[in-house]
Amino acid sequence: MIRLLDRPVVLGTQGCPVPAAAGFDVEQGRKKTMAYKILKAHNQWDDMENLRLKFDALVSPDNNYVSILQTARASGIEKFPVPYVLSNCHNTLCAVGGTINEDDHVFGLSNVKRYGGIFVPPYRAVLHQYMREMMAGCGKMILGSDSHTRYGALGTMGIGEGGGEVAKQLLGRTYDLKRPPVIAVWLTGSPRPGVGPMDVALTLVGATFAGGFNKNKILEFVGPGVGSLSVEYRMGIDVMTTESAALSSIWTTDGAVEAYLKMHGRGGEYRPLAPGEGACYDGLIEIDLSAVECMIALPFHPSRALPIRELKDNLDEIVAQVEAEGQRIKGEAGEPFHLADKIRDGELVVDQALVSGCSGGMFENIAAMADILDGCAISGNGISLGVNPASVPVMADLMDQGIAGRLAVSGATLRPAICGPCFGVTDVPANNQLSIRHVTRNYPNRDGSKPGQGQMAAVALMDARSIAATVRNGGRLTAATELDQVHYTSPEYHFNPAIYKGQVYDNFGGGNPAEPLVMGPNIGEWPEMAPLAEHLLLKVAGAYDSSVTTDELVPSGEASSYRSNPEKLAGYTLISRDPGYVGRAREVRAQERLRREKGLAAVTDEEAGTILRRLQAELGCEEDEIALGSIITGPQIGDGSSREQAASSQKVLGGLADLAGEYATKRYRSNLINWGILPLITAESLEDIRVGDYLLVPGIRRALKEGRSDLRVRRVTGVQREISCTLGQLTGEEQKILLSGCLINYYAQERRTMDGGEEHER
User: Fold this and answer.
1) What is the pLDDT of residues 491-527, one digit of tens each?
2) Is residue 466 within 8 Å of residue 308, measured between CB atoms?
3) How far apart are CA 283 and CA 281, in angstroms?
4) Is 22 exposed, middle or buried (0-12, 13-18, 19+ CB in 10 A)?
5) Can you say whether residue 96 is alpha, beta or left, with left for phi > 0 and alpha for psi between -120 and 50 degrees?
6) DSSP 3-state assignment of 711?
7) Which of 654, 540, 520, 647 is CA-nearest to residue 590?
8) Staple 391 to which of 42, 129, 300, 553, CB 3.0 to 4.6 Å?
9) pLDDT beyond 80 at 262
């Protein structure tokens, strides 16, 4: 079904991938990939090893565009240099907040009027569906501040990053990175009826995530199996490549892609894309589509994927494992978490089902569900089914063709085009419930659970077809391939361009600098952030023994209504994982403010004061050359979404560094750097580092100015030890951002330099 090969492979004369022979010119072969050609076309200088990329378009949802716009405004933006789409699909139905969310939308619209952007009003489209329909094109690159920015099936390399990278593009800067490895995904065969795109995606994610096979790499989909898939089917696989930790993706294009673009009024955006003969890849993933089974991703991660058949064959054992993992996450809060009661008469019975967003809410998925559910009547006292089409054009055609009506008769409820179920702000399962969903993620907090407050539910990922089969079977877990005599009508989708033409405000190139920015009371400015000090004394405010996700660092749910207010949002940092973190970090921040404002004698924390005095004498430095801040530690930090608030909230609370065995994604590490937080990495064990320990990073400012990345971090409390650390490979600009204290400071210093003010320190 799936095979991985971790060595260079070449597309031979027959088009099939084979291991690169001894003496083959690998570098010349790499230049024949689609990815290389697109990267070269967007690189702003001749060095193809160290890329400086500019994108054709940008996109952000309303859960983070305010902070991006505030960063760009503080950095001196005058106009949007490329089309920038502000989509209002995340906060639209936030759990709390009311008109606070609408304040964000009004602010976004006023920015579009001033700087010249594109505004997609609430309920019109999930951001990635809009970008597929109206912005993607063959050979393009699009950068988004959402991790699922993936448009490879349309010949567009999409990258999801933190907001700092989007702000850089708005300011005419480049996206800088080492040229990523490219992995060939060789598809053969065609899926069986009932096997959907999520089944293929979960097969891919389950086989590649844990070992880091795809981490920060580009996936290039090739092979005869591509042609057996509709464009929507390809999109459904493509968007989930984020969950394999891949950086981006690109697919070969064909007549189906050309027809899709023509239908959306953009036929001129098509051109054939294919690798050249002898194209060389850094690895290979082979998937036989005809052998893919109906899959399920167990709670609490998309990579915990296995065939539904396998789960049913080992039901008691696997459910017990999931229950134990849920209890570990929940801890001692509330009653014990339990799932074993979902096993009834030897079958797993589900409470809730949802199909939504950029992965589930596409036309073909929903049409297939209607075929499966025809003649079904969903009971009011059992499983429920909600469906969120990905855009108003999709909803309109479902209605025009009678598909929406058939679903309504079956008992499904159709909802607006929002990211709510995937984002964790709507359709929260009840305590101890089991929900099956065709969305992108199933983290323990992504579904809205509050394990730290005693409320815990479980979400499993499945394809829309198997979800419909399960609903039809009264909530008993059922693979779509288990159903007999389902007639898939496979209706053709018809896009109505009038919907967006009349409802989306496209002001690209028409900005007016006199247009006022409308800021509601919940929209806060970024606090002042100090430049990096010569030495850092860091108190451990959080020490964790397992992976820390971005969903834990800054949760969904009610926190979403404060995403435009840095101080209020920071109050939710790690609240589900470690409710005491915010208080500890704020106390360190308070001590540093006292010291900065009134001197060392004003510090009320006796331990901190004693250590600062000792270090000042030991290092022979002035008082203001040492900064006091907080740090978090763990074996892995940053798995999950691209939300830069996972880093900015730490900085607002006085965090100056993370110390980890690894950073799960490039985008989280980039977020740390853009907010002036040191991304320290160590190969040494951190098991003995405890909350309350103090770590010294001596001479860090000098080290950065000299271009040194390897550091020695010293624990100065308890049993003292030195920890060998590195900052990894930093670009020259990243060094300057860290020295400045954050991206905003860096650009402000550059402006002052250009205006003849103080000299920008380089």
Assistant:
1) 999 999 999 998 999 999 999 999 999 988 878 888 8
2) yes
3) 5
4) exposed
5) beta
6) strand
7) 654
8) 129
9) yes
